[in-house]
Design a protein that fits this description.
With 306 residues, the protein is an alpha/beta fold. The chain contains eight helices and nine strands.
Length: 306
């Protein structure tokens, strides 16, 4: 929306951006790196911040699926320059919809506030006529949603502890299965909303999914770049958009390493049950030990039958 050109990067087996593939994509026009803490798993922020500092780039953390996660003791969203969080029904916490941003300095806070409230200063302090610095838009969240968000946030510590406990139990019962392991978790401060199985081949993953009634992440929904037709076809909101003069090519299967990983990756729900993430099967935050054992047994039986 800001007439900036997105440049897609490969992921590694953590399902987050591969830091070692970033520098080759940087040009004199590059302004920022946007690491996505995908499926609650923090990105490798040490290396990303090192690259950003070297090239004088902003770091905008997409924490939408990782509210409450941390990396080496720091909450995600507080490591880069600004963090964006989501609180819709599929996220760690929910206010029904909406989200929030976190910033690292006063200027960014003032700018973010102005963008979301028609250019006004924070809290609309003072006489705003003649004192607005940018052309902002109207994205104010109502007070009722804010109150719900605050109440939900007070539950966050206990909620994450429960998710991590249930994920650890399920994962312990799936250790050592032939032909399948787990995605790399970059920090134990992850949200534990999902358990991702990583099969040795895409054929094994497909066979498992057929019997389990699910799909590999590659075929799960619109989070996968191959399914983002609006980006691939450069569908823009105005004919004056920079995409119309952009020679960058977006096409299916342009990221072979990412495609290979997503074809072999299968999400098992822990707390987020969402077919759009390929997590339509598994457990939920209220599952008992008996129910977790039953799900684990079913997964083991399917894997052993392949």
């Amino acid at each position: 929306m800001m007439n900036a050109i997105p440049v897609l990067a490969e992921i590694d087996d953590s399902l987050t951006i591969d830091p070692e593939k970033i520098e080759a994509l940087i040009t004199p026009k590059t302004k920022a790196i946007i690491p996505v803490h995908m499926l609650g798993n923090p990105c490798k922020m040490d290396r990303i911040m090192e690259i950003a500092k070297k090239h004088n780039l902003y770091v905008i953390e997409d924490c939408c699926q990782a509210v409450g996660a941390s990396y080496k003791g720091k909450c995600v969203g507080t490591i880069g320059n600004i963090g964006a969080y989501s609180m819709n029904v599929f996220k760690t916490l929910s206010t029904g919809d909406g989200g929030f941003v976190g910033v690292t300095d006063e200027d960014l806070y003032e700018r973010a506030f102005g963008f979301h409230d028609q250019g006004h200063k924070p809290s609309r302090t003072g006489v705003e006529v003649g004192n607005r610095s940018i052309l902002g838009i109207n994205m104010r969240m109502n007070e009722l949603s804010g109150a719900v968000a605050l109440a939900q946030t007070r539950k966050l510590k206990g909620l994450l502890a429960t998710l991590r406990e249930k994920k650890a139990l399920l994962k312990s019962k799936l250790q050592g299965l032939p032909g399948v392991g787990f995605r790399t978790i970059n920090d134990e401060g992850e949200c534990a909303t999902l358990l991702t199985l990583l099969f040795e081949t895409k054929e094994l993953a497909a066979a498992f999914c057929e019997k389990a009634g699910t799909a590999p992440i590659a075929r799960s929904g619109w989070h996968v770049y191959n399914n983002m037709e609006q980006l691939l076809e450069k569908k823009t909101w105005t004919d004056a958009h920079v995409f119309h003069n952009c020679d960058r090519v977006y096409e299916k299967h342009m990221l072979p390493a990412t495609d290979d990983i997503l074809e072999r990756a299968v999400n098992i729900s822990i707390g987020v049950v969402d077919k759009g993430l390929g997590a339509g099967t598994g457990i939920n935050i209220l599952s008992t030990e008996e129910e977790i054992e039953k799900v684990a047994q079913n997964i083991r039986e399917i894997v052993l039958s392949l």
